[in-house]
Amino acid sequence: MKSIVLCEKPSQARNVQAAVGNRFGRVIGLRGHIIRLADPEEVNPEWKKWSCDLLRPESGFYPFAEDRTGGKDKLLREIRNELKDAQRVIIATDCDREGQAIGENLTRYLKFRGEVYRAMFNAEDEASLREAFANLRPNKEYLRLYQAAVARAQVDQIANLSATRAATVVLKPDGMRGAVGMGRVKTPTMAIVCKRQIEIDGFTPRSYWDLWLDVAHGGDTVHLTHKPGEEDRLFDQSEAETIIGGVRNWSGPVSVSREEKRQAPPKLNDLPTLQIRASRWGWTAKKTLDVAQALYETHKITTYPRAENRYLPEVEIANAPAMLAGLSGLGKLGVSYQTPVIRKGKAGHFSDKALEGSSHHAIVPNIKTVNDWEAIYDRLSTDEGRLFDYIARTYLAAVGPDRIYDRTEISMSAGERKFSAVGIVEKVAGWREAMGASAAEQEEDGEEYPALPQWADGAQATAQDAGLDAKVTKPPSFYTEGSLIKAMQEAWRFADDPAMAERLKEAKGIGTPATRDSIIAGLIKQGFLVSNKGKLTASPLALGLYGELMKECPEWLDPAATAEMEMALDAILRGEADPRQVIDDILLKAQKLLDAMKRRANGEGALKVDVKQPPSPKLLAAARAKAKREGVRLPTGATSDARICKDFLGPMPEGNQPSEPQLNFARKIAEAMGTALPDDVAADRRKLSAWIDANAQNAPQKDRDDTATPAQINAAERIAQAKGIDVPPEAMKSKALLSKWIDANGSKSGKASGGKGRKTTRKKG
Fold first, then answer.
1. Is 106 within 8 Å of 35 (Cβ atoms)?
2. For residue range 639-660, what is the model confidence (pLDDT) as tens digits?
3. Of 395, 385, 392, residue with least CA distance to 294
4. What pLDDT is stored for residue 144 in this prediction?
C-alpha cells in the first residue's frame, strides 16, 4: 500500500525521516499553508473595488485557491502526483489547530479518497516520533480540531478584510501609505496600548505621605510603617503631620503574630510566560519564540514551544525521577533534593482535567533525549542556554519540596491607622533552591523582609522617633512586549461585568501563543505602535483610530469581547458549538463596524491625524541616489519619515514622463554611443529606464567610475584618526563604499565627514 507523510516544514520532515525512515511512506516537508483561501475579488469581481461591504460569499465560506508564491505551486503539483496512486496519507504536522488545517486542507482540496491518519506528538526527538507513528489515529477523530481551525480562518478572512477595507476607504488620513489594518485581535491589542497611553498622557502627579514609627523594647528597635493602599493614601500633609504628632510619644503593647508558612512552587511555563519572563532580559516576543523553537526543533532538548497550557498530563508523573536526576546532573542546575514531590490537580502541576481542550502541555525538558542532555547542553548558544536554564529550573522547582518560612508581624494601632513591620526567616528553601536568583522574583510584591526580634505578643514598647516619608504618585508603566502579551493573555481584566470577567478567566485571552508576537510586530510595522528602548507607545494614527472607534463601535476595541469570540472557537473544539453558528455570531459584530463606517463616510470622513511613516525601500533608495548624485547628505529624518524623503526628491514627473536627471544621463550615453536618443524612448519613463539599463555600459567613464576621490579619502583618514579606527581597505577603493563608511562614522564622531559638498571642521588643540 502506497502512503505519504505530510510534515509542516522541511526541518520537521528531516526529523520524521530520521526517526521512522520511509516505513510509513515518502516523507514530504510542506512550507506551512501551501494553499490559501481565495481573495474576495476571486469570489466576486465586484469586490475588487474597496467598500464598506461585508465580504462574505453566498455559500458562507471562502473556497481554497492555489498559492503560487515561493514555489508552493510546484510543491502542490508534486503532492497531487503522489496522491494519484496513494492509498494512505499520514498527517504529521504540528499538533495544534493550525497544524491540523495545514495537513487536512490539502487532503480535502486535492479530494483524496484514501485513508487519512494522524500522528500526534509534543516533541520531535526520535523516541517521541516513533511512539507517535506507532500509535497512529484515524484523522476523523480530530474533526473538531479541524472545524475550529476552519472557523477561525473564515472569520478572520471575512471580518478582518471587510473591516480593513471599510476603515481604509473611510478613515485613511491624508499622507498615509497603505491600508488602515483592522483585525479582531490586532485592533483590541492596539487599544490596550492606546488606553495606557491616554492614561499616561493625562496623568497628573500628586504628593502623598507614608508614616513611620521606631519603637523599642528590650534593647531592640523595630521600624514600623503605615503605607495605606491607593484609595486611603494621605494626600493632605497637615493630616499626616497630625497623625504622626499623636504617636511621637506613644508607648504601649505591640501585637506580635508569628506563624509557619508553606509555599508551593510556581506553575510551569507556557509560551506567554516565557515571553513575559524573557522581556526582562530585553528580548522581544519573537526572539523568545525563535530561541524556544530552536531548543525544540534543532536540539530536541525541550517539548513543543507554542504551548498554551501550564500543566503536564498525569502520565508524565512516572518520568519525574529521571527528569530530576537528569537535570541535577547538568552542573549548575543541580539541587540537593533527590526525590520529586508530585502535586496533582489544578492546584499542582500534573492534571489531566486542566489539560482538557488543550493541544499542548507545558514546556519542559524533553525526557526522550535525557541520555543526550549533557552533550546537547554543551552545544547551546548563550541565548539558548539562558532560556533552557529557566525552563529546567522551573521544572526542578515544580517537583521540589515546599518552601517553609516563619512570618512575623509586629504592629501597633493609632486610631484606625496601623503601623507594622513584617519579617521572614527561611527554614527550608525547598523549591527556591532550584530557582536560584530567580526565586526572589516569585514574590508578589518584590519587597525584602528582614528578620525581626523575638518579642512576645503584648510586649511593652516605646516610641523612639517618628516621621513622614514624602512620596509622589507615579503614572502607569508603558507596556513592553512581555507585559502586552500578558495583557492579551489576561483579557478578562478588561471586562466591565464581574460575572463576565470571572467566566473569561477560563479563556486563553486574545490571539494564540503562536501569533501574539507577530501581531505586535505587525502593529509596529504598520505604524500603530512605536517601540523605543523596549517601551511601546501608541502613534497619533493609533490614537486617532482609537478615538473614532470608541465613538462608533467600541466593541471592536474591547479585548474582553474578542476573548468571548476565542471562547466560542474553543467551544467548537469541545463539541459544544456549531461552527457555522459561531461564524454567524462573530460576523454580526463585524457588520456593526461596517455600518458605523458607512455613517462616518457621510459625515466627518477621513481621520485628521499627522501620520509619520518610514519611507519604502524604493523611496529611500531614490533619495539616497539623488544625494549621492548631487554630493549632499540626506536631510535629517529622511530615513524615518517618508514625507521628508518626498520633499527632498521634489515633485514626481506627471504621468509617465521621465525625470530631467534620467533624461540627461540617457543623452550622455547616446552621445557616447554616437547615436540619437529615440523620441519614443525619451517620452516614456519605463522605456527610458529599460534603455538605460541596456546601454549603461556605454556611459562616459566619469559618470560610472566608482573610484574613491582624493577628497573622500582625506576625509575618511581624518575620521579614522579622530576615532582611533581603521578604514576598511575595500572602502578606500570604492566611491560608493567609502561614501557609506563616511556617512556611518563621520556624523557620530563630531568630526568632518569630508567629500564633495561637505564642510570639513576640526577641533582646535
1. yes
2. 878 888 888 888 765 566 777 7
3. 385
4. 93
Please check whether residue 131 is in contact with residue 92, taking contact to mean a CB–CB distance below 8 angstroms. Answer: no
Average confidence (pLDDT) over 324-353: 92
Closest by Cα among 319, 368, 316 to 344: 316
DSSP state letter for 709: P
Which residues are within 8 A (CB) of 668 and not within 5 positions of it... i.e. 6 or more apart? 699, 700, 703
Gap between the Cα atoms of 449 and 389, Å rounded: 27
pLDDT of residue 670: 83
At residue 755, the pLDDT reads 38
Q: Which domains does the chain have, with CATH numbers?
A: 3-135 (3.40.50.140), 154-202+477-601 (1.10.460.10), 207-264+404-472 (2.70.20.10), 271-398 (1.10.290.10), 617-704 (no CATH), 706-765 (no CATH)
Determine the residue type at 316.
E
Phi/psi of residue 553, each to 5°? -155, 70
Query: pTM surpassing 0.70?
Result: yes
- For residue 741, the surrounding DSSP H or E stretch is helix 735-749
Residues 327, 280: Cα–Cα separation, whole Å: 24
User: Burial level of 274, CB count in 10 A (0-12/13-18/19+)?
Assistant: buried
* Neighbour-count burial for 416-432, b at 16+ CB within 10 Å, e otherwise: ebebbbebbeeeebbbb
pLDDT band for position 475 (cuts 50, 70, 90): very high
The region, left, alpha or beta by phi > 0 then psi within -120 to 50, assigned to residue 191 is alpha
Each residue's pLDDT tens digit, 130-168? 999 999 999 999 999 999 999 999 999 999 999 999 999
Rounded Cα gap, residues 483 and 193, in angstroms? 11
Q: Which is higher by pLDDT, 447 or 253? A: 253
Residue 759 burial (10 A CB sphere; 0-12, 13-18, 19+): exposed
Q: Hey, what's the cell of 28? A: 514530504
Mean pLDDT of all residues in the chain? 87
Taking the C-alpha atoms of residue 628 and residue 736, their distance in angstroms, rounded to an integer, is: 8
Residue type for position 487: A
| Residue 403 DSSP SS3 | strand
**CA nearest 247: which of 465, 469, 470?**
465
Q: Which residue shows C-alpha cell 486563553?
A: 508
Residues 6+ apart with CB under 8 A from 236: none
Question: Could you give the angle at the alpha carbon of 668 between the alpha carbons of 666 and 673, nearest 5°?
Answer: 95
Strand-pairing partners, residue 28, are 6
Q: Is the pLDDT of residue 178 over 70?
A: yes
Which band of pLDDT confidence, cut at 50, 70 and 90, is reported for residue 370?
Answer: very high
- Cβ contact 520:529 at 8 Å: yes
- Of 460, 457, 423, the C-alpha closest to 215 is 460
What number is the average pLDDT over the span 366-386? 94
Does pLDDT of 749 surpass 50? no
Q: Are 215 and 414 in contact (CB under 8 A)?
A: no
Can you give the three-state secondary structure of 50-94, one letter per residue?
A: CCCCCCCCCCCCCCEEECCCCCHHHHHHHHHHHHCCCCEEEEECC
For residue 479, report the phi and psi dihedrals to the nearest 5 degrees.
Answer: -70, 145
CA 21 vs CA 103, 126, 542, 578: distances in Å: 20, 11, 52, 40
Spatial separation of the C-alpha atoms in residues 596 and 602, rounded to whole Å:
10
